[in-house]
Amino acid sequence: MNQHTNPDREARNILIANDRGGYTIPTEGLYPYQWNWDSAIAALGFAEFDIDRAWTEIETLFSGQWDDGMVPHILFHQQDDGYFPGPDVWGGHGPIPSSGIIQPPVAATVARKIWEKDGGAGEDRIRTLFPALLAWHRWIMKWRLDDHGAVCTTHPWEAGRDNAPDWDKAMEGVDPTGVGEYQRRDTSHVNSADRPTKYDYDRYIKLVQIGCEVDWDQQKLLSLNLFRVADPTMTFITLRAARDLMVISDKLGIAADGVSDDIQKLEEGARSLWNEALNSFDSRDALTGEWAGSVSNASYLCWYAGLESQSMLERLQGTLANVPFPVPSYDPAMPNFDQRRYWRGPTWGFMNMLIGFGLVDMGHLPEAEVLRQKTSQLIATNGFAEYYDPLIGSPAGGNSFTWTAAVWLHWAGRK
Predict the structure, then answer these.
(1) Three-state DSSP state, 24
(2) Confidence (pTM)
(3) What is the CA radius of gyration of the chain?
(4) What is the pLDDT of residues 300-344, one digit of tens each?
(5) Cβ 391 vs Cβ 30: under 8 Å
(6) DSSP secondary structure, 298-330, as one string
(7) What DSSP string runs through 233-286?
(8) Phi (first) and psi of residue 194, to 5 degrees
(9) Is the bond into 327 cis (omega within 30 degrees of 0)?
(10) What whole-number distance in Å separates Cα of residue 66 and Cα of residue 42?
(11) Selected residue with higher pLDDT from 242 and 189
């Protein structure tokens, strides 16, 4: 394999090339719009060489916030007929054409990190952003909690882990009848073996249609949408965001009423995702109570959320020792593992970075450094791919990928 001789320069050039003037696309062709959590991760990369541009990235994301506080998972700043489903399919009604669902709220955590990198330059920016960050948090607390206080995903795209095995059982309950004909574009850009199947995609589109039929009325969707899964990704990232909102609130002297209570509720919700039989954090169908039975890379975000788990640490130590290019998005020992198909096995650099943040925060420095070094080797050897085969390290999905470049600049490439 060819070593990438100057990954620092290459990573900066990828961010600059994918910059569309205030927002960054994930990669040319495959993803032509602004994605929510991709954008937040991109901001971390920009902060390493252009901190003003980093703030602009977050501000542009929140320029699409809906009146009720929701921040969509896609903002369609410019029409691109090559992408499906586009704004005409979603029928979103924010200030910018958008989708009708969210993604994990990493933006608050990223905003805090960028501010701490340059407190003086960032104070006015984060002070202006804070009410919007708080409004999104409150929207999630209002509409996405299950009975235990865990945060639910209401569409596989919402958790950002589109075709993860976590959703398989719940997706069986989604009837795609009447979804109609449509033309996917993702499989024309990359190998179809790396992408979700038509079975999955039919159900993705059906869930979009259900949302559109009620104009994304969250109250109505509580009864109409049969896909509602309490999930480690959403729960751990929302809990971490809430903790960071409290820190920002304290430092700025701005009230964040109720957030400390929310943290307690989210901690209880996060602990409720411990599947004793699996000995891991797991996803749970919020409607049936059935466990997914899935050990995913999101299961290891417990430390990122500020929750300790000796069992997960021992499991991670085994993964770091035995999987050539960790952390796989789904445990290779489990029955639905697929080493190249998106979230059913591949390793994702940005998830490794979030796990790494948590490990450092909770004092697990040896594991954090092993994970960082292995991720660094993976990127330096195989380039800035969307994701990677965890067994042989080969790149998969899109290339010249924004968040992988950002991961290199902010975390993996640091000496």
Answers:
(1) strand
(2) 0.96
(3) 20
(4) 999 999 999 999 999 999 999 999 999 999 999 999 999 999 999
(5) no
(6) GGGGGTTTT---HHHHHHHHHHHHHSSSPPBSB
(7) HHHHHHHHHHHHHHHHHHHHT---TTHHHHHHHHHHHHHTTEETTTTEE--EET
(8) -90, -5
(9) yes
(10) 22
(11) 242
Does residue 37 have a pLDDT over 50?
Answer: yes
pLDDT confidence of residue 191 = 67
Residue spans of the domains in the chain: they are 7-143+241-267+294-412
Sequence-ordered alpha helix ranges (H) in 27-81: 36-46, 51-62
> Is 122 exposed, middle or buried (CB count within 10 Å of its CB: 0-12, 13-18, 19+)?
buried
Q: Which residues contact 412 (CB under 8 A, 6 or more apart)?
A: 349, 352, 353, 372, 375, 376, 379
Active centre residues (catalytic): 162, 386
How many Å apart are CA 227 and CA 122, to the nearest integer?
A: 39
Domain 7-143+241-267+294-412 has CATH 3.40.50.970: no
Taking phi over 0 as left and psi of -120 to 50 as alpha, with beta for the rest, 139 belongs to: alpha
200-213 residue pLDDT tens? 999 999 999 999 99
